[in-house]
Specification:
The chain is an alpha/beta fold and 374 residues long. It contains twelve helices and 13 strands. It has one domain (8-371): Alpha-Beta Barrel (TIM Barrel), CATH 3.20.20.80. The chain is 42% helix and 17% strand. The chain binds beta-D-fucopyranose.
């Protein structure tokens, strides 16, 4: 199975999960990551691994709380840091995809407050003016609904709110922020590429007509609602695919879970095909911005990659405009409320010595990246 010419092959990380030493974010108070993978200092070494693994693209995020630790104070040293990171990638001919909001914010931001739109878009403009020539693709917000529900509805992530009203306010502010950043960037530069990374689920009805109704409701609210609101302000859609849900009326999940990852997430490769086909209606280029699994012993990762890519290839053959694939993640990292236990990396991290060890599945993926085929 051949992939289109110029297909982009890479892997993804986010600042808070890999950098270590973040002090002024809203997460730093509850879940300090200490040194984490120390990617902040070891990015050159990590980019050498990317090259060794034949990847030609890297998705990562800028830690807003480093760049603007106090309201309206820009830390020029951090601006220079990320410039060096971007320059290093460019010098290695690696395409850059930069996320502006990947779950963490400076501690002084609250997304339920409309002022977040102002501060976030101001931050976005600051970094755009610095890095416009070094960034190939901008991802404005990562998984907006996951963030809004974990932080403001379920109360799991900081600021641990449990309120439907706050959740809705956050979503509304995220929609405004996406539109504003898209407009600002396009005013500043014509040929810029701006998108979001959306976590979409393959909702499958369990059996009955009522189950079918529930599945389509779930699809409407979780997969389509946000995209419908921002679709005229996107140059591409980023898809993060992890989940399949077999829905029984009203909203219970009846998965068979035949194969699961270390953290119990079902491995269901054909779901990515269905979700991609659903996205076709937006008529926008699509990147798989995340797809991966927790698998410490590397038992399922090779097959996971192979099978998911098979279904991506099939969607492409049927006319879905997929332009690239980013595996989550380049290296083991901090998995939010689950801590350091889940191992999502193509590269294993020894957290005592910070030594990097390439897992064998990563060599398989490298072959795919290098040959542009399965
Ligand atoms: C996604 C997140 C990413 C990572 C993976 C496992 O929802 O975007 O940061 O935690 O899940």
């Amino acid at each position: 199975m051949k992939f289109p010419k110029d297909f982009i092959w890479g892997s993804a990380t986010s600042a808070y999960q890999v950098e270590g030493g973040v002090e002024n974010s809203d997460w730093s108070i509850d879940f300090s990551t200490c040194q984490s993978c120390d990617h902040y200092n070891r990015y050159e070494e990590d980019f050498t691994l990317l090259e060794e693994l034949n990847q030609n693209a890297y998705r990562f995020s800028l830690e807003w709380s480093r760049i603007e630790p106090q309201k309206s104070c820009i830390n020029e040293l951090e601006i220079e840091h990320y410039r060096k990171v971007l320059q290093s990638l460019k010098s290695r001919n690696i395409k850059t995809m930069v996320t502006l909001h990947h779950f963490t914010t400076p501690y002084w931001i609250k997304w339920s407050d409309p002022s977040a739109v102002f501060y976030f878009s101001r931050f976005a403009k600051v970094v755009f003016k610095e890095y416009a020539d070094l960034v190939d693709y901008w991802v404005v917000i990562n998984e907006p609904l996951v963030y809004a529900s974990q932080s403001y509805y379920k109360g799991i992530w900081t600021p641990q709110k449990k309120s439907l009203f706050s959740f809705l306010k956050v979503v509304n502010n995220q929609i405004s922020a996406c539109r504003k950043v898209y407009q600002d960037f396009h005013c500043l530069k014509q040929d810029v590429q701006v998108g979001i990374a959306k976590n979409n689920v393959f909702f499958e009805p369990y059996k009955s007509l009522l189950d079918k109704f529930s599945a389509s409701m779930a699809r409407y609210f979780w997969n389509d609602y946000f995209l419908n609101k921002v679709k005229n302000h996107l140059d591409f859609i980023g898809l993060n695919y992890y989940f399949h849900s077999k829905i029984k009326f009203p909203f219970s999940v009846q998965n068979e879970n035949r194969i699961v990852s270390d953290i119990g997430w079902e491995i269901y490769p054909q779901g990515i095909y269905h979700v991609l086909k659903e996205l076709k209606k937006y008529n926008l280029p699509i990147f798989i911005t995340e797809n991966g699994l927790a698998d410490e012993k590397d038992r399922h990762r090779k097959e996971f990659i192979e099978n998911h890519l098979y279904w991506v290839g099939k969607a492409i053959k049927q006319g879905v405009d997929v332009r690239g694939y980013f595996h989550w993640s380049l290296m083991d990292n901090f998995e939010w409320e689950k801590g350091f236990k889940p191992r999502f990396g193509l590269v294993e991290i020894d957290y005592r010595t910070l030594e990097r060890r390439i897992r064998s599945s990563a060599y398989y993926y490298a072959k795919v990246c290098g040959s542009n085929q399965l």
